[in-house]
Specification:
By secondary structure, this protein is an alpha+beta fold. It has a single domain, classed as 3-Layer(aba) Sandwich (Aminopeptidase), CATH 3.40.630. Helix content is 29%, strand content 35%. It contains four helices and seven strands. Strands 1-2-3-4-5-7-6 form a seven-stranded mixed sheet, sandwiched between helices.
Length: 150
């Protein structure tokens, strides 16, 4: 079956929340995702196979920079390259919006995510101390983009 990357809708939020809750120790509340559906700088996309949402990401583009706020893959689909595919789509979306750099924060303890980001060309910029709700630091990573030419 073909996987389609498309803009998220309110009807997708139950599936997104199930993935979010399974993926993160301190998941975003549904109200945060509802806000992203209305946010003019946000690109909130889902990866869908048939009727199944297998992952999503939330990206902000503004002022020449992009920020990947959230990205996750359904537990049953992890380890199959979907994180990389979602990230590739997010990078293309940011470049297409004219962003020159894409930033993200990642837990240093999330070795799988750090590996995916490094393989995609992200570099470590700095560490934000006690960034996460549980007190863990965040590594800020960045990728230089080549925006699409008009």
């Amino acid at each position: 079956m073909t996987v389609v990357f498309r803009s998220a809708t309110a009807e997708d939020l139950a599936a997104v929340m199930a993935i979010e809750r399974a993926s993160f120790p301190h998941p975003w509340p549904v109200s945060a995702f509802e806000s992203e559906l209305e946010n003019s700088v946000a690109t909130f996309k889902v990866a869908v196979e048939g009727r199944e949402i297998i992952g999503y990401y939330d990206l902000w583009c503004a002022g020449g920079d992009a920020h990947l706020l959230n990205i996750a893959v359904a537990a049953a689909r992890q380890g199959q390259g979907w994180g990389r595919r979602l990230l590739t789509d997010a990078i293309a979306t940011a470049a297409g919006a004219g962003a020159e750099r894409l930033f993200l924060e990642v837990r240093p303890s999330n070795a799988a995510a750090v590996r995916i980001y490094e393989r995609a060309g992200f570099t470590h910029v700095r560490r934000r101390r006690r960034y996460y709700e549980d007190g863990e630091d965040a590594d800020v990573m960045a990728l230089a983009l080549k925006p699409k030419k008009e």
